[in-house]
Fold each of these.
Amino acid sequence: MIHCFALGLVWLTAAASGAAAFNTPVILVPGDGGNQLWANLNGANNHWYCERNTDKPVMAWLDLINLAYPAVHCLAYKLEMKFDPNTGRSRDNDGVSIVVPGFGETETVEWLSDVKIEQTGYYNKLVDHLVNKLGYRRGVDIVGAPFDFRRAPNEMSEYFVQLGALIERSYAANGNKPVVIVGHSLGCKVILHFLHSRSQAWKDKYVKDFVAAAGPFGGSASSVLASVSGYNLGLGFIRPLWFRDAQRSWPSTYYLYPSGLVFEESLAIVETKQRKYTLAEEDIRDLYQDIGYPHGYRHFKALGNLTDQTLPPGVRTHCVFGHGLKTAHQFRWTNGRQFPDQQPDIVYSDGDGTVNIRSLDVCVNWSGKQAQPVASVPVAGAEHVKLLTYSEFIDVVERAASGSD
Ligand SMILES: *[C@@H]1O[C@H](CO)[C@@H](O)[C@H](O)[C@H]1NC(C)=O
Ligand SMILES: *[C@@H]1O[C@H](CO)[C@@H](O)[C@H](O)[C@H]1NC(C)=O
């Protein structure tokens, strides 16, 4: 009897300390290219080399073998979108159906590929750190919210419902603790859009912090290059033209267009022998006419101002971003380069190598515009994607998660 009682007491004590030991849930939202995408093929009408049909989803982004010629054409075909003028929406390419695997888990945002090497790691360092140091459990209190990063928030309503439900579920499963949302790159702007759509009461209840890593809140000049000539993210073995059709077709490319309010509308973003194109609407219209892709202007009109970056998120925010690296700012085809099929001469400004500083530090302006604090954490020399491996970034998440900030 005494024995049973003692056992019961031990059990009760363990349960009580277990309850106190819930971690603050961490929700990981990736950026452009920051999670795996798989594809089902059903009669795809693509390059002679590529498969036409599959009996199960095959890895598209990022199957390393698919980055080599000629397989790279198969990958570009799978990722290209078609615009349907009847619905005003973008759809998968003919015979392709893209699947986003791993929602609510971490695997597909930790690694971009099933080949786990340094270059394919993404949120893996952060997740490992929280698991090893604070006892986090994958899929329980640290979860991923991958999405189809080709799309912009105007075509993501289903995702926003899922994301809201994931946050509420994580809150309830972890002792009613409000969550920390971590975003990277495009994911930061997507989170901002999501938070704008939620009531202040909902945010107060469910969201403790927003950690925005390398958020291009004012857009990025490199998205202009991606849609005009193709952009290979600096990977020398990839020809920019191979991916241009895909990049041009992605709504997210235009969602990340440099905002005239942040970059100055009079900025000559593109210059050819014939003329200059600024960020003013009429110039952008002409630009896409002149390169033979008038559709680009329609996307720009629909998506350029979709998320108001001057409106704060309404939750406590930490903006972590790199600076001090050469970042493309203006593009010139004045020096004998063929427009738009050859890569231009590039005029650089400060930034993280991909996103310009004036866009990264837009969130600094939220300070004082909302009741909750906004902290800015600039990290000298941290490249856009590598930032996710920097201790400065991991520390910010750890402090927010452990409540020691
Ligand atoms: C966004 O808003 C600004 C300011 O109102 C305007 O000048 C610009 O043309 C708009 N951009 C788009 C893509 O509609
Ligand atoms: C930030 O705020 C300052 C001062 O109000 C303003 O001059 C500047 O244009 C703002 N920057 C952005 C990117 O909104």
Amino acid sequence: MKVEFFRHNIDESDIATAVEVLQSIFLTTGPMTSRFEKKFADYMEIEEAVGTNSCTGALHLALLRHGIGTGDEVITTPMTFVATATAILQAGAKPVFADVCPKSGLLLPEAAEAAITEKTKAILPVHLYGRMVDMRGFARLAQKHHLILIEDSAHCIEGVRDGVRPGQLSNAACFSFYATKNMTCGEGGALVCRNAEEANWYHWDMEMMGWKYNMDDIQAALLINQINRLNENRGKRERLEQLYRDLLQGIDGLDFVEAPGNDERSAHHLLTVLLPGKCSRDEVMHQLQEQGIGCAVNYRAVHTLTYFKKTFGYKPEDYPVADDIGNRTISLPIYPALLEKEVEHVSTTLKRSLALGSLF
Ligand SMILES: *Cc1c(COP(=O)(O)O)cnc(C)c1O
């Protein structure tokens, strides 16, 4: 049995909408992008949304919009996709890491506060695997220290925590519609914010150097109907995660990241497990892949990547929690079209591979 790491859910209605665009006058940013932006803003319960061609571009723009550049420090998490940190570098600023919570892998406001220096201009927390960070806490922190707050919400379109959605308490939240995200058009992104004036800047003015990050109408066409299916698909992933948790419980040394609280809605974007410290994650991954099971690493801690080690002199032990998660984590298939029997197969195969773990 082959189980792909991800299968998108682009359907006939999405394809028909894209064909409509191809038969119309506008191919690039036009009426379909506007319709998408309006509908996405409504879904996010926020005033403004702007389509972009990636989340990386959206993060870069959001940082520039708030004047972040050379000499500034931006506090973020080392447990994220590298683009969170490279967007900060692209803006000319320095990413400063704060270690994550061992249970959830999330950046906590207390940890971010301890990393604040006189050069800190912004905080860029990441909603990891679908769970939101404590945005009420981050908003209080940003207000107290007069800092810009930008969310990397690539994993979290559908999330709610303490009654707050991404973008509602910050200066901007950035989303990705990359190939493996909950909603996708291959490559794409968006940025949401509370203030129409801010959003217009992203479109029309040139107050400083600009970058070409616009979404086109073909991307918007592929995305616009997927918004209708977000909640149902989220429910499917939630049930699949529960099944994985049931099937993989009680294995010595194998940990799940903390499940979302009762007052919280996770986007359930990725299903990550932390393998027992004594076994080789790469070897287990290799075995799963050899047996036709797609899996991934989300993520090796950013500060342990060669560029960051070389440029900033980081050592793995500088952020030990993120380093440990990065060495043990493995992401298993989770998407709406995944069948229960496939989850059972993946779980059995993983267990078998762990039973052999003493061999490597
Ligand atoms: C996917 C992802 C990004 C980058 O998104 P792109 O649209 O590929 O630029 C950034 N941050 C996180 C956490 C991601 O998962």
Amino acid sequence: MARYRYPALPASEVTPKALFEARRRFLRRGVALGAAAAAPGLLWPQGASAWQEALKSELDGELPTRRMAGGEALTDYEDVTTYNNFYELGTRKSDPEVFAHKLVTDPWSLTIEGEVEKPGTLALEDVLSREALEERIYRLRCVEAWSMVIPWIGFPLRDLLQRHDPTSRAKYVLFESILDPDNLRGQRRSILDWPYREALRMDEAMHPLTLLAVGMYGEMMPNQNGAPIRLVVPWKYGFKSIKSVVRIALTEERPTPSWVAQNPEEYGFYANVNPEVDHPRWSQARERRIGERGYRETLMFNGYGDEVAELYAGMDLNRHY
Ligand SMILES: Nc1nc2c(c(=O)[nH]1)N[C@H]1C(S)=C(S)[C@@H](COP(=O)(O)O)O[C@H]1N2
Ligand SMILES: [Mo]
């Protein structure tokens, strides 16, 4: 399969429309020519489901773009879709792409419950038809000390939460991924206590940078990257960015994320990217940008400190890691 590079975008926050359109055409051409075999979750399937049709019509329109990763070049699409952590599909980096077709996403619904005045279960096409999509270019930084720069397509989580009227008792937000051990080979082993669970504090969940993503690189989300809907929390380690979400529950008590349950010595509730607080088995001071040689210095809060540092004012981040 031919490798291709995306043209570097200007550092301005909003991409001029003409350039954005040109890049999407470029992307579609690249997808049509080269990605069929490598990315089974990507191409629009024959007889697309209702949510796929809804997303396709959104993506065919004009989405605003915000670049929030400085002027950094985008990571190659091929790398982003073949080097993944998605333990439901296997623990090797190559497994999620190989077993992507095992993730059944049609139909898909999302339940929002717990401390909300208006709980409910929505078909994904209904979520898509009411939320305003945009493209946001964010870094994703893994606790394993690698990182990528990805143009995500999604909407702020807070838009969805606000529509369901959180009660005054809502202090945390719990997320759960799909549970389907018949199809998801990783769930037939006790790597984690399935389903995969993550959680945020309410103010983190309501932060404007926190995104529910339904696509990337101008296209719908590939299965291996967490189709059809996943979280992206750019100032936290990758494992907070839970994939293939089916349930969101607002809670008064702090939930226990899967990684915290599995190994509380290694994984704290907050998981903020922090070059000064090392993982017990490796340093967090540097990182390898996928596709680059050598290392970069890791930035506090993954470079989003101006936006998010105040959430942690007065907290000892050595203790609340
Ligand atoms: N459901 C689920 N979500 C998940 C994971 C997982 O194993 N299962 N892995 C996490 C980790 S450790 C990382 S680094 C990111 C990787 O996202 P990417 O494969 O799209 O780069 O997904 C996160 N979300
Ligand atoms: Mo990760």
